[in-house]
Description:
- The complex is a heterodimer of chains A (about 120) and B (about 120).
- By secondary structure, chain A is an all-beta fold.
- Chain A has strands spanning about 5, 10-15, 20-25, 30-40, 45-50, 55-60, 65-70, 75-80, 85-95, 105, 110-115.
- Chains A and B meet through strand 4, strand 5 and strand 9 of A and strand 5, strand 9 and strand 10 of B.
Amino acid sequence: AQSVTQLGSHVSVSEGALVLLRCNYSSSVPPYLFWYVQYPNQGLQLLLKYTSAATLVKGINGFEAEFKKSETSFHLTKPSAHMSDAAEYFCAVTVYGGSQGNLIFGKGTKLSVKP
Amino acid sequence: GAVVSQHPSRVICKSGTSVKIECRSLDFQATTMFWYRQFPKQSLMLMATSNEGSKATYEQGVEKDKFLINHASLTLSTLTVTSAHPEDSSFYICSARDSRTVNEQFFGPGTRLTVL
């Protein structure tokens, strides 16, 4: 079975500072990994995804994530935070062809950006 | 492309009434749709998975007689909360999957249900 752990339910950074949101996964087979962003009272927007191609994945809004199999991690980073990045971020895992592609979500990390 | 809509975006109803939420894939055919529930400050919990033309598969602990799911076409799935109670108040989000992108889901904007 797959699982996702997001370390830190709340991360606060200053505007212009590095953003690092941590995600570790557990999967007995090669996973597909996703990062989603959710703004208040809205659905989920895909930031980026890893599907066994390049280990460094670039997404929208300047975010990127690196798949590290040895560390079972898929941490999300952005070099310089912007006020508009304040939102809830979810890491999710699935496996190819498994369980109809069900996504397993982490508990989420709320990112706050201070001016 | 890959846009999913939900209607209504917000609904308030009295206890004991039923509420229907629609989920539509606007520009693709969704062979599978998923329904999630999200409580405040929590993650998404999968409620059920539905394939077009088939009965929905419910997750453990989700009452299928209370949360009726219909996926009658490749672009529409509905979730009906029957005899709603205040504890059913939540944010309901649907997602849809294209048969060509087996492992990627496209999410709707969510529906805020408040039961008085």
